[in-house]
Design brief:
The chain is α/β, with parallel strands linked by helices and 256 residues long. It is 36% helix and 20% strand. It has helices at 47-51, 54-61, 84-99, 115-126, 143-147, 153-163, 176-179, 199-209, 227-243, 251-254, and strands spanning 2-10, 15-23, 34-38, 64-67, 108-113, 133-137, 187-193, 216-221. The chain starts with a strand and ends with a helix.
Length: 256
């Protein structure tokens, strides 16, 4: 395996962006699944690498892992800022998959923690047949409810920059409660600690999902909003994908 930090120019953002990659042996890359792994509000594109045994897990499953930076954007095309969603959702995958000479339709997965869990669910549910799975670890899954609770001024500021105001999410393409109301959803893997302030939002979303979607796994475990859990979560998620043979199937099969 190799770890690389590359800089790519983003037309969407009008600036060069750094991305951290984990790459398997070039001889096996054509058969590798691709995991787009998203960071949380206080993190960046290198944090997953720094705080977990991700390289070990990627090597075990022969994965290409792509970790972009999205600052505190909530993976949105910001109302008062930049097109972070367009960068992560469309521009970056096209550039990376072409640059790595991957098959035209590689097996793709998307996952993330906290803000990145929200981002993974939002981007994945917006194009559900594009991904074999979506993973969320301690994700901000009920953003509407979060905006209706007392929150810190800095997070309120982030949300207003991303979406316009605190009431501009409900019923839109940024609202996961709206996005889950689709006929087809990929395999979903959702986790949250029992001492996490985001637990109720996870339970709320899952309670709606289980009514219509069988291809779902949800786990709660002791702990809060912490890296000790997220290291366990990413390892368990990848093991679950391997068990379901979702790391080595043709994308055409996954989308049927």
């Amino acid at each position: 395996m190799a770890v690389a930090k590359v800089s790519l120019y983003s037309e969407s953002l009008g600036s060069a962006q750094e991305i951290t990659l984990i790459l398997p042996n070039p001889n096996s890359m054509q058969s590798s699944a691709v995991l787009y792994l998203l960071h949380g509000l206080l993190d960046g594109h290198e944090t997953w690498l720094q705080r977990t045994r991700l390289v070990e897990y990627a090597e075990r499953y022969n994965l290409v892992v792509v970790m972009p930076n999205a600052q505190r954007s909530f993976y949105a095309d910001q109302a008062q800022g930049y097109a972070w969603r367009r960068w992560v959702e469309a521009e970056l995958p096209s550039m990376i998959e072409r640059w790595l000479a991957l098959p035209e339709n590689p097996v793709r997965h998307i996952a993330g923690l906290s803000m990145g869990g929200y981002g993974a669910m939002k981007l994945g549910l917006s194009e559900p047949k594009r991904f074999a799975s979506i993973g969320s670890f301690s994700g901000v899954l009920d953003l509407v409810n979060v905006t209706q609770q007392p929150i810190s001024e800095d997070i309120q500021h982030d949300i207003e920059i991303a979406f316009g105001d605190l009431n501009a999410v409900e019923g839109t393409a940024n609202d996961l409660m709206t996005l889950i109301k689709q006929k087809y959803l990929p395999y979903l893997y959702i986790t949250c600690g029992t001492e996490d302030s985001l637990l109720e939002g996870n339970r709320t979303l899952v309670s709606q999902l289980v009514k219509t979607h069988e291809n779902l796994e949800y786990y709660e475990m002791p702990g809060g909003h912490e890296w000790a859990l997220w290291d366990q979560n990413i390892a368990a998620y990848l093991q679950a994908l391997q068990g379901k043979q979702l790391l080595n199937l043709a994308s055409e099969t996954l989308a049927t």
